[in-house]
Amino acid sequence: MYPKSFEYLRAKSVDQALQYLKDNEGSRVIAGGQSLLPMLKSRLYQPTVLVDINFIPELREVKLGSNGDLRIGAMVTHYDVIENSTIRENAPILSSTAENIADVQIRNRGTIGGSICEADPSADYLPTLMALDARVVLKTTDSSREMKVEDFIQGPFETLAEDGEMLVEVIVPPSKANYRVEKYARRKADFAIASVAAIVSLSKDGKVADARIATGAQQDKPHRLREIESALKGKASKSVNLEAIIGPATEELEPLDDLHGGPEYRKHVLRGMLSRMLGDLLSGKEA
Ligand SMILES: Cc1cc2nc3c(=O)[nH]c(=O)nc-3n(C[C@H](O)[C@H](O)[C@H](O)COP(=O)(O)OP(=O)(O)OC[C@H]3O[C@@H](n4cnc5c(N)ncnc54)[C@H](O)[C@@H]3O)c2cc1C
């Protein structure tokens, strides 16, 4: 099917893009177009105006803030997240996550901002950004606000972005701690049936100093597994009984049910992944 006709506006700066969004009711941003085009063609979205933000150089920048936080422009592609040395040095888990996304074509065009705004429950970045406590910067012509990715994502394909608001930057606190990030999918380039991002640091005396764990493709939105995190923190890593923690902590999950996998299957896969990944992290095996 062809998309319903729309006007196309190419923005040359963030200010111009925000002005276009403000002046045109029913407008929508186009970033890499990888998720948007199928939505347009199936007429699930019928914007009157598309505001193209591909020609705004500052949205492609990766910087280190004065406090050490990574500041990643909304238009940084999945390919850039893999290749950029500043991202890889300061948040290696994010680069590893991007390696798992789709295929080469999609990684070349798709962007971190587009993926977050799409809010797909199975998207690969979201669990990782939640485990990193990352934040998004949202702007309109006359406002700027910051919020945690965890709060921004409200449900399947639903965020707190308001009309006229654009995601301009993702702020990622640096994390060089040991990590694992994995997705389980039917084929390599598919969306996940279950995914886990886990960051665990051990103190010199072998105790769990910090644990941040998030999962995707389970419920209507990716989320942190805080019951598991608190059960691990402060424990001697060698004496943790993972099965006794993971079983009860995942009991209440009500995973998605679609053609990729039913709820019990998804939960079973998740438990297996958690057991193996956390087992490796607690034994101190480097990624
Ligand atoms: C076949 C296929 C397989 C895929 N497999 C995976 C996978 O395995 N894992 C995975 O994580 N993803 C996967 N994706 C999704 C892919 O990662 C997309 O690139 C990503 O979800 C959207 O990024 P985009 O830049 O293309 O955004 P677009 O498609 O341009 O936009 C997506 C949505 O976000 C809005 N938007 C975009 N940027 C902004 C912004 N800066 N501010 C406000 N709103 C904005 C748009 O209006 C639109 O509603 C797949 C996609 C396809 C088509």
Number of domains: 3
CATH architecture of the largest domain: 2-Layer Sandwich
Rg estimate, integer Å: 19 Å
Poorly predicted regions are none
Gap between N and C termini:
44 Å
Name the CATH class of the largest domain: Alpha Beta
Main sheet: strand order: 4-5-10-6-7
Counted by DSSP, the helix tally is 12
Please provide the ordered H/E string of secondary-structure elements.
EHEHEEEHHHHHHEEHEEEEEEEHHH
CATH fold name of the largest domain: Uridine Diphospho-n-acetylenolpyruvylglucosamine Reductase, domain 3
Strand content: 15-25%
State the share of residues found in helices, binned by percent.
25-40%
Give a verbal description of the structure:
The termini are far apart. The protein is built from 12 helices and 14 strands. The chain is an alpha+beta fold and 287 residues long. Helix 11 (242-251) runs antiparallel to helix 12 (263-282). The strands form 4 sheets. The chain has a 5-stranded antiparallel sheet. A 4-stranded antiparallel sheet has the order 11-12-13-14, sandwiched between helices. It has a 3-stranded parallel sheet with strand order 1-3-2, with helices on one face. The protein binds flavin-adenine dinucleotide.
Jot down its keywords.
Uridine Diphospho-n-acetylenolpyruvylglucosamine Reductase, domain 3; 12 helices; alpha+beta; 287 residues; five-stranded antiparallel sheet; single chain; 14 strands; Uridine Diphospho-n-acetylenolpyruvylglucosamine Reductase, domain 2; Enolase-like, domain 1; binds flavin-adenine dinucleotide; 24% strand; four-stranded antiparallel sheet; 3 domains; globular
